[in-house]
Amino acid sequence: MGKPAAVVWDRSFLAYDLGGDHPLNPVRLDLTVRLATELGVLDGVELLAPEAAGDEEIELVHLPGYLNAVRAAPTAGWDVGHGLGTPDNPVFERMHEASALVVGGSLAAARAIASGEADRAVNIAGGLHHAMPDNAAGFCVYNDCAVAIEWLLRSGVERIAYVDVDVHHGDGVQTAFWDDPRVLTISLHQHPMSLWPGTGWAKELGGAGAEGSAVNVPLPVGTRDGGWLRAFHATVPSLLEAFQPEVLVTQCGVDTHQEDPLADLALSVDGHRAIYQAFRDLVTERGYKWLALGGGGYELLRVVPRSWTHLLATVLDRDVDPATPLPADWVAHATRLAPGWELPSTMGDGCDPGYQPWGGDVEDPVDRAIRDARRAAFPLYGLDPHDPRD
C-alpha cells in the first residue's frame, strides 16, 4: 500500500443508539476500536473525526420531506410514518443528528479518497444499506453507502463498484443505482426466501439501459466459509475485471457468522478475515481505490469486535494472526459489560477458510446459486457463464 489508509472514528458515533434491547447496539463499535487499539492495529494512526452531513449531502439520495420527518420524529408522537417508530426502526432522541453523523463519517472516508489523501479508507460505523429515499428500513435511517457513492460520482469518479457481503441483501443501494450504469452493485446474501428483506434474486439485474448494474448471489441457509468464498471468487473478480471501477466500495456486514442471532449462514471470523483479504488482493492487483464500510453484525461481544478488528488490520496492512490471544484488559472490560458471557480466547475461530474453486458443478446448493447468478449476469458483460476461467 502506498498512501496511509484513512480510518474514520469518533466516540460520537455511539449516539446512533436504537435503545433498549435493540440488536444494533453501538457497544459493538466501542468494543471493536478498543480491541484494535489494544492489539496495536491503530498505533500511530491519526483517526479522522467525522462531521455531520448537511441536508444537501443527505438529499443526494433521500427526499427533503423524509429528512423533515426524521427531525420531527422524536416529538411527533406515535404516527410517524416513513418506516419510523417500528420495532426495527424505533425513534430515539437526536435521531437526525446521529444518523447524519454516520453519513458524514462515510463522506469523510470518500473525501479522503477523492482528494488523493488516501487510496483506502474505512468507516466501521457506516454500512446502513437498507434505508430508502423516503423511509427507514432494517435498522437504517439514512443510507450512508449510497450517499457516499453518489458524492463520489458528482466529484468526478466515473465508475464505482459496490460489493455487499452482509447476510441481508443490499437492497437500498441497489435501489439507489438501479438505473445508473456507472455503478455496479453486487450482493452476496442469504437466500431471499429465508430472510428479510425478501429481495436479491439472481434475476434482479438493473433497470432499462443499466442491465447488469445489479448482480445478486443468493446463498442457501447454512453456507459455510468454503462455499461462501467459492461463490465470491466465482463471481466478483470476473465482474469487476469486466466493469473496471475506479473505486471499490464494500459493505462488510458480519451477520453471516454462524453465531449471529438474526440469520442462518455459518461463516467464521476466519472466513471474514479471508473476505477482507480477498478485497485487498483485488484492490492491490488492479489499482482500485477502496472504501470499506461496516454493516450488520449482532453477536456483539464474541464476533463483531474480532471481525472488524481484522477489517481494520487488513485495510491498514497490519494483519493480525487468528491465533493471537485476546488482550486481558479487553477481556476484562467485555466481561464487566456482560458478566457470565463466554468469550473466545483468540482472534480466530480455529476454522480453515480454504475453498474449492468453482468448476461448473451444480450438485451442491451453493454451486447452483453460483450457476444461476453467472447465467443471469455474465452474458451482459461478455463473459461465459459456463467457463470457470471467467
**Number of DSSP helical runs:** 11
User: What is the strand tally?
Assistant: 7
Low-confidence stretches: none
CATH third-tier fold name: Arginase, Chain A
Task: Report Rg.
Answer: 20 Å
**Biggest sheet strand line-up:** 1-2-7-6-3-4-5
Distance between the termini: 27 Å
- Percent in helix: 25-40%
Q: What is the name of the CATH superfamily?
A: Histone deacetylase domain
| Main beta-sheet strand count, sense and barrel state | 7 strands, parallel
Question: What structural class results from the helix and strand content?
Answer: alpha/beta
Mean pLDDT over all positions: 96
Gross morphology is: globular
Output the helix-strand order: EHHHHEHEHEEHEHEHHH
CATH architecture: 3-Layer(aba) Sandwich
Pathway: Ketone degradation; acetoin degradation
Pfam family, one: Hist_deacetyl
Protein name: Acetoin utilization protein AcuC
Family: Belongs to the histone deacetylase family.
